[in-house]
Predict the 3D structure of the following.
Amino acid sequence: MTLIVLILIPMAVGLWAQMKVKSAYGKYVQVPSRGRITGREAARAVMESAGIHDVEIVQCHGELTDHYDPTNKRLALSEANYRGCSLAALGVAAHEAGHAIQHKQEYAPLGLRMKLVPITGFASQFLPIIMFGGFFFGYGPITINLGILVYLVLTVFQLVTLPVEFDASKRAKAQLVGLGIIDQDELVGVNKTLDAAAYTYVAAFVSSLGWLLYFLSKR
């Protein structure tokens, strides 16, 4: 029962969230905005409105691989969002620009997440050991304690990520309408896309928390 509640249900929620975001993005990436402004242009306009002129906007491979790199001050957009003028493209581009604004304004949760990135990356390297070690040899004291430590780090990271992502989406929606990039009635498509993406961050947090509680229950 513990396995079902703490692991399998969160996994199911995660899969549902992934399907939700792919569905919403797939729908609204086909809906062009009236202004025909590309994602790259929208991201630039949003950043310039906040006085940001030193962030490079580049195109990256893949779908929904968009991200903001605060270390190198680089905003990367996937091809459909870099060149496209769909409501989904504008929403994603403005969202990433929202992270650049957070960086400029020294938004505390973003700063904390940046500090947690190295330790989170290090902790993640132990996940195969925990998973395969537990599966083949059972969960002994060492594996359990390692699992608790690793998932504690991941859970804290995912928790800090939530306000960072929610705030970036809030900024994106306000800026897109405020700058006249989209009309108020077009905001529905942007909302659907960004809200669906938010589910994935919540699902990631719930999953990490579930695994943490699972290992704690084995002590």
In short: The radius of gyration is 19 Å.
